[in-house]
Structure prediction request, 398 residues.
Amino acid sequence: MIRNVTAAAARDDEGAPVDPGFGVYVHWPFCLSKCPYCDFNSHVRGAAIDEARYLAAFRAEIAHRASLAPGRVVRSVFFGGGTPSLMRPQTVQGVIDAISSAWRLEPDAEITLEANPTSVEAGRFRGYRAAGVNRLSIGVQALSDADLKALGRRHTVAEALAAVALAASLFPRFSFDLIYGRPGQGEADWRDELARALDHVGDHVSLYQLTIEPDTIFERLRDAGKLQLPDEDLSLALFETTRELTRARGLPAYEVSNHARPGGESRHNLVYWRYGEYAGVGPGAHGRLITAKGRLAQETERHPEMWLTQVEAEGHGLVESVALSREEQGDEFLLMGLRLSEGVDPRAFEKLTGRDIDLARVESLIGDGFLERDERGRIRVTAMGAPLLDTVVADVAA
Ligand SMILES: C[S@@+](CC[C@H](N)C(=O)[O-])C[C@H]1O[C@@H](n2cnc3c(N)ncnc32)[C@H](O)[C@@H]1O
Ligand code: SF4
Prediction:
């Protein structure tokens, strides 16, 4: 029996590997406006969204995935976006009901919803709690009104902190996101901002270094020399400050950008990072289902109205569902698992792929100080390797 499901202890009390579990990801693809840094599958619509029609399509997709992966016990549900806090609570309730009739929901399943902290959306928090959501993840992004404006956000710092306080009073668990490494932000600015933010934290906080994504307004501004972005040294200093302050407040990093009190880790994201099984429903959602055909990598149609039409015609929105080779699974396992502070178990890799992790390469990265082996033989990225994670992982997976 698994008694201790925390990132710090990826094994149960008997020393057996923890089962990563089964999660369901639900994508709500709409936002009130497009933030200039964002490349998520989010769309702005002038007219009201026909939520009843979307709910019927979500129900169809959930039933379809349950026919491919029947009998699962759901450990977590995650409403991500886009802006799921634009959904009516009845729609959220309908999706949760559909999930619990398609599979069995664990009695203490984690049900998270991503919320933007405008006062209008905060007005729906009570409804989400009543619908069964037990964890809110709030997009605070910055504690400076000028920076929120530059990020294209529709809320102020005061609104964001009020939304966090409301979430803390209504939900058993909550988290919020901040973006750092913002244009013009120095190390002292971030240290001060993060220290203030940590005064409002619950059991979890996500701290993302700004990335300039392709085809965003920020990319065009950067290319035109109009964004003053941190150089490599400042990026590293910001990353280290983040690690230092969160550790000091009892929420060490358990993943590159995610920090939690022990036991407060996002169970849903742990399903991904421990390479578990998950169904993805809604426009542009990804899934990994283990079926008789192998581990299927699934992806749905990204465009909301096209997704809707396809689901109505075919009963699902999948545009891709392919079995991954053992080699591809090994690469994904490393890509996900090395993001975690607990690292990866080489025996799990061997079981999955039928081959050894390239020991010569691992040893050389250990020698260079980028990787380390813990007392149980797990391999993990060191503090020195963490800022270079992508390069390190590419090297082990190659
Ligand atoms: C799906 S997104 C947004 C959820 C919600 N709509 C919001 O804006 O708060 C999840 C998180 O990714 C982070 N994020 C999005 N784009 C980013 C970027 N270019 N660089 C760093 N973090 C980013 C933000 O912190 C955001 O809260
Ligand atoms: S950051 Fe959030 S609110 Fe802004 S466009 Fe992306 S998903 Fe929508």
Summary: Residues 112 and 135 are 4 Å apart (CA to CA).
